[in-house]
Amino acid sequence: MKGIWSITATLAVLAGNVRMTAQDYFSAPIPVSGIEVQLETVAVFPDSLPGDPPRINLVTLDPAGRLFANDQDGPLYLVGESGEVSEYLDLRDYPELSVRSTGEPGFQSFAFHPDFHEPGAPGNGKFYTIHSDSNTSGTPDFDPGGGTSFHTLLLEWQAADPQSPIFTPADPEHPYRELLRLKQPYSNHNAGLLSFNPMAAPGDPDYGNLHVAIGDGGLGDDPLDNGQDPSNPFAAILRIDPLGNNSANGRYGLVAANALAADGDPSTLAEIYCYGLRNPQRYGWDIRTGACYIADIGQNAVEEINLAANGANYGWSAREGSFPYLSGDTAGMTDPVAEYDHTNTVADPPATTRSNRAVTVGEVARGTGIPELEGKLMLADFPMGTVFLLDVDADPLDGGQDGLSLLSLLDEEGQPATLLEMINAVRGDRGLEAVRRTDLRFSVNTPGRIYISNKHDGRLRRIKPTGEAGIILTGNNAGQTQLEFSGLLQTSPDLETWSTVIPQPASPWIIPEPSEAVFWRSLVP
To answer: For 446, what's the count of Cα atoms within 13 Å in the CB-facing half-sphere?
Structure first.
């Protein structure tokens, strides 16, 4: 598969209770970066139903480096080294789960425990899914009021053989365990990404903690006031220990380090890591600095990127982005590191998506084999399919639109094209009608590799590397070794087991002369 590793050496202020409408808060469109990247297809997923391409939502790796992707309709796929696709699990095979998959709801995300492949470890063979469920007969752990559209279920699965390409439950009578059930009052703004912190190593306090993105419960204007209510899990990123048992329902553990767990206030929810988010479908890490960036989808006017911080309140629905929305009181709220408005995003948006704006985020590009992308946070407006860059190494991250630039895309023939054009070309070849949006998503926790998925043509694409990897080791009289490298740096004690250096250093990297044999390699995806 082409995606497998190969070794080569000032903001306007509105007072009072004002609801924003789409307006031109940032007068100039986001400029073109001057950087071009080519997309290439690395896998094709089967239709959910004949003539109905899959809605691919998340692409990520398990701890052994196997590539997985889920279809929002229910399947979880394993992508092989040559691009072959096989079904690992299908939630629809468990009819009692009753997956609801229309519009925003569906099989939203999955994550493998970092000890998934560690024999004897408590997390061995365990992975997690979160989905929308039409079966509302169970008692929800949290009910924000309002009606009942469906329930959101967080499940833990136990594989009999973590190495197997097909999921077989360790206990066929109990293939999964329910950790958390939420009553979803409206059909939008439900669950988002599940992820373990890729920067956390064994022994680190955050190792094995599961981060869970939950929207504000839906509709518009946050009618249940969940955004500024830290007593429930909506409009928040949760951080829990899935192997613990001191939660109210006894099915997962609370993380003592969470600011709202340690604040001594019984009215705040210990599970919350940060809150005040409208619809935080995606977040992604920087494997050099450990920073985590959250994409929060706006309502009427502003899309925002936030820097994750323990206990932070990002302001929804008192404000949208950095602008007052339902309240003029924004004291104590954390500002976005970047944002853009709905009116003048780019100079020439795809005509069919002019009224649609919604932000998504990937990771900071490190070791991709494309030097121009190094240190750039990948983000996009996913209906338009336009990809933006934020240079987190150089930008002050002080909000506004100034730090954003537009990444130009080339198709597989090397010709300029939008992702929407690429998708509709595939659909046209299949005799399917054209679509008006892309629903772009970036891969997460795929160091050095940037995959781009969508919900309309079944293609998994990646950004094609343009450079070559190389590494030079030199020593000095001070007992130090200097590594000059391009690509993604990995290390091994025996030339058999390789691991990515986390945090990923900058080149050149100077380290003490190792006392034992150690091997290094630099890779381009």
So the answer is: 25
Long-range CB contacts (within 8 A, 24+) of 413-421 = 414/38, 416/36, 418/350, 418/385, 418/386, 419/39, 419/385, 419/387, 419/452, 419/454, 420/350, 420/352, 420/353, 420/384, 420/385
SS3 state at 150? strand
Instruction: Please tell me the least confidently modeled range out of 5-9, 97-101, 211-215, 450-454.
Output: 5-9
- Give 429's DSSP letter: H
User: Is 198:206 a contact under the CB 8 Å cutoff?
Assistant: no
Tokens (6 digits) for 268: 């705040």
Domain parsing of the chain, residue ranges: 6-35+48-362, 470-524
The per-residue pLDDT for range 288-314, each reduced to its tens digit, is 999 999 999 999 899 999 999 999 999
- The helix or strand, by DSSP H or E, that contains position 175, with its residue range, turns out to be none
* Residue 34: how many other CB atoms lie within 10 Å: 10
Contacts 24+ apart (CB under 8 A), 71-75: 71/45, 71/107, 72/101, 72/106, 72/107, 72/108, 72/455, 73/48, 73/99, 73/101, 73/106, 73/107, 74/48, 74/99, 74/101, 74/106, 74/107, 75/48, 75/107
- Per residue, the 3-state secondary structure of 260-291, as one string, reads CCCCCCCCCCCCEEEECCCCCCEEEECCCCCC
CB distance 281 to 297 below 8 Å: yes
Q: Which of 355, 359, 347 is nearest to 278 (CA)?
A: 359
314-397-453 Cα angle (round to 5): 75
Query: How far, in Å, CA of 297 to CA of 280, rounded?
Result: 6
Residue in the block written with tokens 């780019």: 346
**Count of CB atoms within 10 A of residue 315's CB?**
30
**Cα(415)–Cα(171) distance, integer angstroms:** 51
pLDDT at 470 over 70: yes
Q: How far apart are CA 395 and CA 402, in angstroms?
A: 9
Unique residue bearing structure tokens 């338009």: 384
Residue 119: CA atoms inside 13 Å, Cβ hemisphere, count?
2
- Residue 250, pLDDT above cutoff 90: yes
Whether 208 and 243 have beta carbons less than 8 Å apart is answered as yes
Instruction: State the Cα–Cα distance between residues 194 and 152, nearest whole angstrom.
Output: 13
pLDDT tens per residue across span 89-123: 999 999 999 999 988 999 999 999 999 999 999 99
Closest CA to 322 of 387, 276, 260: 276
Q: Which helix (H) or strand (E) covers residue 122, if one does?
A: none
Cα–Cα distance measured from residue 71 to residue 165, given in angstroms and rounded to the nearest whole number: 17
Helix ranges restricted to H, 28-187: none
Candidates 89, 155, 156, 163; CA nearest to 119 is: 163
> How far is 107 from 191, CA to CA, in rounded Å?
9
Spatial neighbors of 348 by CB under 8 A, at least 6 apart, are none
> Is 254:241 a contact under the CB 8 Å cutoff?
yes
Instruction: Indicate whether this model's pTM tops 0.90.
Output: yes
Superfamily (CATH H level) for 6-35+48-362: TolB, C-terminal domain (2.120.10.30)
Structure tokens at 196: 């373990």
